[in-house]
Every structure is written in C-alpha cells, then in structure tokens.
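Structural prep section.
Before we set up the soaks we want a predicted structure of the protein with nicotinamide-adenine-dinucleotide in place, mainly to decide which crystallisation condition to try first. Input record follows.
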Amino acid sequence: MNKLKVGIIGSGFIGEAHIEAIRRLNFVEVAALSEHDEKTAKKRAEELNISKYYGDYKELINDDNIDVIHNCTPNFLHFQINKEVINSGKHIFSEKPLAVNSTQTKELLEIAEKNHLYHGVNFNYRHYPLVKEMKQKVKNELGRLFHLRGSYLQDWMLFEDDYSWRVDPKQGGKSRAVADIGSHFCDLLQYLTDKRIKRLTAKTKIVHPERQKPAAEIKTFAQAGEDKKYEQVEVKTEDYASVLFEMEDGTAGNFTVSQVDAGHKNDLFIEISGSKKSLSWSQENANQLFIGHRDQANQILSRDPSLLSSEAAERCYYPGGHIEGWSEGLKNSIKDFYNCILAAGDPADYDFATFADGALEVKITEAILKSSREEKWVEV
Ligand SMILES: NC(=O)c1ccc[n+]([C@@H]2O[C@H](COP(=O)([O-])OP(=O)(O)OC[C@H]3O[C@@H](n4cnc5c(N)ncnc54)[C@H](O)[C@@H]3O)[C@@H](O)[C@H]2O)c1
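Run finished without errors. Recording the tokens verbatim:
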C-alpha cells in the first residue's frame, strides 16, 4: 500500500510532536517540511531526518507529491495557510485555534466543505483512552446531568519576563489564555457531553500590564537565556479567565483558565456530575478516571486495556501500568484523522475535531472576551 504523504508547515514545539506522532503510525509518511526561511528549513529537515524541505510554505503546498498538510505555525498564519491548502485540493490538519476570528473560521469551513476535503483541528485531549471511557459513562451511567466544572492551569507565563509570540495580538490573536488552552477545555467539555455551550459570563484578567520581550524569539515553554536583552512591551492579551456558562440543555458549569498559576504545568481537569455518579479526569494523571458515588465506595479506574470498553482500549498501546499520556493522545488524534481519510469515511463517525468544531471554539473565545469587556451574559 502506498503511504499517504504528509507535509508539515512549522517545526517548532508542536510541529516536531506531529512529526513524531505521524512516524508512530505506520501508514503515513512525513515527506517534507517548511519553515519561515530556507536556512531554518534545511536545519530542521536535517535534525528531523526529513528528505525534502522548503523555505516558503507555498512551495510545499504546490508539491504534487504531498497528499495532506499539517499547519503547525503560529495562530496568525492559520487562516491564510489553511485557505491556500484547501484551494490546492489537499486535505488539511490544522493546529488550534483554527483562525483568529469567526469571519475567518466561517470562510475556512465553507471552502473546505465545498471542496469535499477532509479537515481536522488538533483538539488532542479528546483522544485519551480514559476520556473515551468517560464519554461512554456520561452517556450510559451518569444519569441526569447536574453540573460541569474544571480548569486548565499552566505557569509558563508566570513571571514578567516570560514571553511568547502568543502575547502579541498580531501573532496570537486578541485572546491568549482562552484561545490557547480554554479552547481545549471547551472542546473537551462539549465532546464529553455531546452538548454545546450556549451562553456565558466571564471575567478575564491581565496580571502583568507589561512584559519583557526578549530580543531573540524563544521556543514555546522555553525560558530566555542568561544573556537576556529585553524590550518592555504592553500586554493586551489575558493571562487568566474565569467563566460561568450554560449548555444548550440548561446544565450549568464553570471553568478557570490561567497561564500564571505557579506549580501547574499542563493541568487540565474536568468533572461532570450527574444524578447517579460523578466522573473526573486530569491530564496530568491521565491513567486514572475517578468515579464518585454517594452510596458506595468511590472508584479509581486505571488505564488498563483489559478493563476498558473496546473503543477506549483501542486507544491504548501498552498494558496497564505502562504509563501513557500526552504523546499517545496526540498520536490518537492524528491516527483518527488518517483512519477516516483512508476509509473515505464520514467524519461524523470518528472522534477528531473538524473545522466546524474549530469554528465553534473561536466563537466561544469571542463570547468570553465580549462578556468580560461588557460585563454581561453573552450568547455564543
Ligand atoms: N494542540 C496542542 O496541544 C498544542 C500545543 C502547542 C501548540 N499548539 C498550537 O500550535 C501552533 C504552534 O505553536 P508552537 O508552540 O509549536 O509554536 P512554536 O513557536 O514553537 O513553533 C512555531 C513554528 O512555526 C514556524 N513558522 C513561523 N512562520 C512560518 C512560516 N511562514 N512558514 C513556516 N513555518 C513558520 C516557526 O519558525 C516555528 O518553528 C499554535 O497555533 C498553537 O496554538 C497546539
């Protein structure tokens, strides 16, 4: 069987992770990458052992040997690159957020559907085995949905001299913490419940009105070196948000996102409570699902394929106790997308997020910013 050939645009933190995940699937091949210039593209292609490289993403898009493109660039490039990929007739797997505003996401969704192309967005937290198990339990065992809560906390932007391109609205978009990690939380919540967030009220906060931007760009989650040279810049994007929301069926919930909570690294936590039990899962403890009871002892279900439903067990690679986590979730996200392409399947029968889900997350982000700005409830 000829392997599907993939081109990766952007080989930073997540681009490299996509390459590693694709290589763990044995039916897809990373055939080329592109970077922001020729020198970087050549260097990264050598480091990552990729035979073809381009210093301009347009050349990669025009490469007739490539079937599918992954867009792993900073947010401000998502719209333009995704649009050009779709117009070239190639399938597209984009990093989140799908674009920086809902006018752009609407256009992307329309042209992707019109051209009958497969389109995916990397909401990778859907794809952990115990998340799949949790989804089934929400549907079959939880009873009536009572309430939803959670948080997504990180600390890599805690100090005033922490900086990333995400701080600059021209590169990251108008929202930072919400677009970057709040979008993951909302996607997970909606995936698990099969319901949409309908309305919300929110408070966002900038804890450092100014940050020290290093003269040289630094990689995501990295820290500036010893010989720091800084420029003082005004911060216009939120470090933190707290959101109270209502789902389409009236179920209420709340969540907090923050990039400035000391000690929390990639701390995504979600709890769903119903009339029969409650279920909770945490990304940093991804091999355990908490099942809470009122009238019997609480349970911890461990990620052991022999104890899980077949759909959740399919997402495991190793036996229980052989700890799996973030990289397997990413592998599953990408695998699900390619399984659908290879089967010429209907995305509705798969779990990966499409451009429709990506567009919805951008609408939620916009509603959160609007609610905080205008201090009122906003319909999504
Ligand atoms: N799903 C997830 O869990 C997850 C995690 C991290 C990042 N992301 C998303 O991935 C995207 C990239 O984030 P990152 O953390 O990898 O950033 P990064 O800064 O580490 O990497 C971005 C890369 O894109 C390259 N690039 C910039 N302009 C380019 C151009 N014109 N052509 C080709 N390459 C170009 C940069 O040189 C860099 O290598 C963001 O949109 C972010 O939201 C998603």
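Observations: The longest strand covers residues 145-153.
Flagged for discussion at group meeting.
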